[in-house]
Automatic annotation (TrEMBL):
Stored Gene3D superfamilies: 2.170.150.70, glutathione-dependent formaldehyde- activating enzyme (gfa) (3.90.1590.10)
Membrane-crossing residue ranges in chain numbering: none
UniProt-listed PROSITE patterns: CENP_V_GFA
One family name in Pfam for this protein: GFA
A GO MF label: carbon-sulfur lyase activity
Name of the protein this chain belongs to: CENP-V/GFA domain-containing protein
Protein family: Belongs to the Gfa family.
Positions of the CENP-V/GFA domain: 80-198
KW rRNA processing (keyword) present: no
Keywords: Lyase, Metal-binding, Zinc
Record InterPro entries: CENP-V/GFA, Mss4-like_sf
C-alpha cells in the first residue's frame, strides 16, 4: 500500500523537520506501508497509525499525535528501478500507473548539455522522493557519499554517481523529484513516457539535436525556443548571434568545457598528424556482432575518423578518395566524423539513451589555451578534476568530479583516438552540431541492435530523423567502403 500526503502538509513538514533541510516540502513524508508500522524520517522515528482516511504520527517524546493528516490510499503505483552503470547509485522510483505515458520533452539548454555532456537531456517526474536501500534517498545515499550533488541553480540539485558519473536524480525546490530517463531499468519505456516536444532550442544557436529528431512515429515534435508555448523554431533556423559559416571556417580551435568549468579543452583542425594513427573500425561503421573480425581490424588502414576518409597507398603516403589528392591530403576542408552510440554502457553511464561522440586524434586535443596535449595515462599530468571510470576491461570513461559531465572515452586498443562528448563543445563557436568541424554519420546508430528501438520513442525518432536530415542536407554520409588508392 502506498501513502502520499497531500500538498497541505508542507507547512507541517517544514516546521518539524528543520533538523534536515533536505526533507522540507509536501513529499517529505511519502513512504511505503506494507508490514512495518514505523518509518524513519530524518533522525526521528514516528509510529504511524491508520484510521480510515486519516494518518496520525506519534513521536517518542509526545503522548499525543504530533500531526494528523488526511491521506490518499492507492495501489495504482508502479515502482521501477533506476541505476547507474556501476550500480552504486541504485534507487527505486514510483509512478502512478493509472496515468497515461508521460509526455516528456528534450531539454537543449546550455546547462543540461554542459552538466551532462549530452546533446540534450530529460528527466521524468516521480511520485515523492526515491527509495535508496529501502529508505528515503536523502537519509542514506547522500550521507554515505554514494552520490555527488551538484547545484545547477539556487532551486535545483542534480545527483550523479561518484564512481561512473551517471546522473540519476534531480530535486527542485527541495520537494519535487525527477529521475533521468536513461537510468530507468524498464523493459518498455514507452509505457511510462514518450517524447513529445523540444524546449530551449534557442540555446543551441543552430537547432542542435532537435534537427536530428524532428518527429516520432510520424508525429512532428514542436521545437520551442524556450519553454513550452514560446516561439517555435523551424528546421533551418540559425541564430543571428552565431557567426557566419564563412567566419566559422576560419576558426583554428574549437573549445569545450563542462558546466562548472573544471574541465576545459580545445580541438585543432585536422592536419597531417591526424592521419598517422591506426584504429579498428567502430560499431558505428561496422556492426560488431555482424562483421568479420578481419574487417573490423581495418587492414586497409583507413583513417575513418576523418572526412573525406584517408587511405594509405602502397608507398605509405596518404590520399583521400575521391577526389584524389597526393599532397596535403588532410586539407582545410577535412572534418572529424561524429555519431551517436546507443549501447547500455553509454546509456547507464550518461543517464541518456543516445551519447553523441566525435573521434579526435590525441595529437589534436589540447588543454584549453595551451599547446599541451591532455594526458589520460600519467596520473600527475592528468587534469586535476578529471575522474576516470573503468567501464570494461581496457576501456575508460573520463568525467568531471565536480559536476559529473561526461567528457571523454578511450581504450587501450586505440589510445591515439579519443572519443569526445559533443555536448561539451562551445556552442558559440559553430553551434551545437558544429557542422563546420564535424561530419555527422547518418546511416547508423552504434549498437542499435541492443537498443530496443520498438520500446523507446527517442531511439525511433533519432533513427528516422537522421535519414530525413540527410535527405534535407543532400549530403553523402562518411562510410567505411574506401578502396586503396595508388
Amino acid at each position: 500500500m502506498f501513502l502520499c500526503l497531500s500538498t497541505s502538509d508542507e507547512k507541517w513538514a517544514t516546521r518539524y523537520l528543520d533538523s534536515d533541510a533536505r526533507f522540507h516540502g509536501p513529499f517529505s513524508l511519502l513512504m511505503l506501508l506494507e508490514k512495518a508500522n514505523e518509518v524513519v524520517i530524518s533522525t526521528m522515528t514516528y509510529t504511524v497509525v491508520l484510521d480510515s482516511d486519516t494518518v496520525q504520527y506519534y513521536c517518542s517524546s509526545h503522548s499525543h499525535p504530533v500531526y494528523k493528516s488526511t491521506i490518499t490510499m492507492t495501489s495504482d503505483i508502479r515502482r521501477e528501478k533506476a541505476q547507474c552503470h556501476c550500480g552504486t547509485a541504485s534507487v527505486v522510483v514510483s509512478f502512478l500507473s493509472a496515468n497515461p505515458p508521460i509526455e516528456h520533452f528534450l531539454c537543449h539548454c546550455n546547462t543540461c548539455r554542459h552538466v551532462e555532456g549530452q546533446m540534450a537531456f530529460y528527466f521524468l517526474p516521480i511520485e515523492g522522493p526515491p527509495l535508496f536501500g529501502g529508505a528515503l534517498f536523502n537519509a542514506i545515499a547522500y550521507k554515505q557519499g554514494d552520490v555527488t550533488s551538484y547545484r545547477t541553480s539556487p532551486n535545483s540539485v542534480r545527483y550523479f554517481c561518484h564512481n561512473c558519473s551517471a546522473t540519476v536524480l534531480r530535486c527542485d525546490n527541495e520537494t519535487d523529484w525527477f529521475v533521468s530517463g536513461g537510468s530507468l531499468c524498464v523493459d518498455n519505456k514507452d509505457e511510462i513516457a514518450r517524447l513529445a516536444y523540444h524546449i530551449n532550442v534557442a540555446d543551441t544557436l543552430d537547432g542542435g539535436m532537435s534537427n536530428h529528431i524532428p518527429s516520432v512515429d510520424g508525429k512532428k515534435l514542436p521545437r520551442y525556443a524556450q519553454c513550452k508555448g514560446s516561439d517555435e523554431l523551424h528546421m533551418n533556423w540559425r541564430s543571428e548571434n552565431l557567426k557566419s559559416v564563412e567566419d566559422a571556417k576560419k576558426d583554428t580551435r574549437l573549445s569545450g568545457y563542462c558546466h562548472c568549468g573544471n574541465i576545459q579543452f580545445e580541438i585543432s583542425r585536422p592536419n597531417f598528424l591526424s592521419a598517422t594513427p591506426h584504429a579498428p573500425y567502430p560499431d558505428l561503421l561496422y556492426p560488431r556482432a555482424q562483421t568479420r573480425l578481419s574487417t573490423v581490424r581495418n587492414s586497409s588502414d583507413e583513417k575513418w575518423w576523418l572526412y573525406p576518409p584517408v587511405v594509405r597507398n602502397h608507398h605509405g603516403n596518404t590520399s583521400t578518395r575521391p577526389p584524389l589528392v597526393h599532397q596535403d591530403s588532410v586539407t582545410r576542408g577535412t572534418k572529424y566524423v561524429a555519431g551517436y552510440c546507443l549501447c547500455d554502457i553509454c546509456r547507464q553511464s550518461g543517464g541518456f539513451e543516445a551519447q553523441a561522440w566525435v573521434w579526435i586524434p590525441r595529437s589534436n586535443l589540447f588543454e584549453r589555451g595551451s599547446s599541451k596535449h591532455i594526458d589520460f595515462v600519467d596520473g600527475p599530468k592528468r587534469p586535476k578534476h578529471l575522474k576516470q571510470y573503468l567501464s570494461s576491461p581496457g576501456r575508460f570513461r573520463e568525467f568531471c568530479d565536480t559536476c559529473g559531465a561526461t567528457a571523454f572515452w578511450w581504450t587501450t586498443s586505440r589510445s591515439d583516438i579519443i572519443d569526445i562528448s559533443i555536448g561539451l563543445l562551445d556552442q558559440n563557436v559553430d553551434g551545437v552540431r558544429a557542422e563546420e568541424w564535424l561530419k555527422w554519420y547518418q546511416d547508423r546508430l552504434s549498437f542499435i541492435e541492443t537498443a530496443h528501438e520498438d520500446q523507446k520513442s527517442i531511439v525511433r525518432g533519432l533513427k528516422s530523423g537522421l535519414r530525413v536530415y540527410k535527405e534535407m542536407k543532400h549530403e553523402e554520409t562518411p562510410g567505411a567502403q574506401g578502396a586503396q588508392i595508388n
